[in-house]
Design brief:
This protein has a single domain, classed as Rossmann fold, CATH 3.40.50.720. It is 42% helix and 17% strand. The chain is built from 7 helices and 7 strands, in the order βαβαβαβαβαβααβ. The chain has a 7-stranded parallel sheet, sandwiched between helices. Strand 5 (131-140), helix 5 (154-173) and strand 6 (180-186) form a beta-alpha-beta unit. The longest helix has 22 residues, at 106-127.
Length: 248
Amino acid sequence: MKIAIITGGGRGIGKNTAQNLARRGVGIILTYNNHPEEAEAVVSGIREEGGQAAALKLDVRNVKSFEDFATQVSRILDKQWSRKTFDYLVNNAGTAQHSLIKDVTEEEFDMLVQVHFKGVFFLTQRLLPLMADGGHVIFISSGLTRFTHGSGVAVYAAVKGAIEVFTKYVAREFAERKIRANCVAPGALDTDFGGARTDEQRKAIGEQTLLGRIGTAEDIGPLIAALLSEDSRWVNAQRIEASGGMHL
């Protein structure tokens, strides 16, 4: 059985990815920060469908906690799957931004960098020694690195750009272990990330998307699961946008 670690797996893209991977027979370790009940609900749902899953608390801003987190991962791998390694890492946890450049504080800037780049960098660094050779790392970027949409997301988009560059270097530096790295860049989605969408927003986004609607987490989770499968074994070091054809 393959094992996947999915950060921020209690809702949205992370939840849907966990569910889709579990249905393909992948064991799931998902993380949460502030909402353990959501994570446990996902775990329970996977188990009810015959899958295997566990949840661990993780604050991706706290790099010093990663050593303890890796120890917990090792314990769960041994206890639940009798393994010392896992196969897939999906760096999904994140937070939104709603402030214009002129209003961004140093504290907000640092928080966005910590969550979307520094935390991702050092968590990946710490977990790669536990990843089996031939594994796969998925990073989550954003359509906002290709197009601008609205205002108030400059820092968020910039750190996602850094993640896209980082993806290529992970693929290069771990190529000897046959570990792949790819980056999924969703367009605007109808999730609660950054606040629920209004009907007006959904309509406006749909009008700017070739397929005529706003995307959902259900459009992204299956894509990530497919990328992690053997069917996508020759896809490496790529930015894959899943936006329905937005702003073309």
